[in-house]
Amino acid sequence: MNDTLAAAPRTLGRWGLAPIGLLRTLWRREDSSGDEGASTEVLVTGLESAAEAGQRLTEKVQSGMDGEPLANAASICRWELLILRERLAEWEFGPALRPLRSQVIRELDGAAAAARTLSSGYRYHNLNRICEGGQALDEHLDALSKLHTRLASDA
Q1: CA atoms within 13 A on the CB side of 18
Q2: Could you write out the DSSP letters of every residue in 108-128?
Q3: Is 24 part of a structural domain of the chain?
């Protein structure tokens, strides 16, 4: 499990940090259905935020923490992913980006569920749940990374 989570930063690290202006657009709740460029930036920023949440959890795992602190880190990761999911669901996207947003939301839901499984595995020292949660989280974060690459190449 540590091997799969340890490999994640190489994939996610290439994204870098999002500019502050783009992060602010993610929290805006105004209608932007006529502005595809802003919607694309919001979606890209959302994908980058998900990658950063996963990377922070990976760093905690790599630091050698165990038990309760890792369970808390996984719970925080889940919370961040669900907040991001809520914000993306509230944003008005144009017809061209709605299917992609739906895909991103499905992957965020899966990643949040995986983080919950991972958290309970660490909390109750259940190796099966740790492995299942870690593997599922890696898969969902990888899918989000591929969506980010696809969206960035279209932009």
Answers
A1: 22
A2: HHHHHHHHHHHHHHHHTT-HH
A3: no
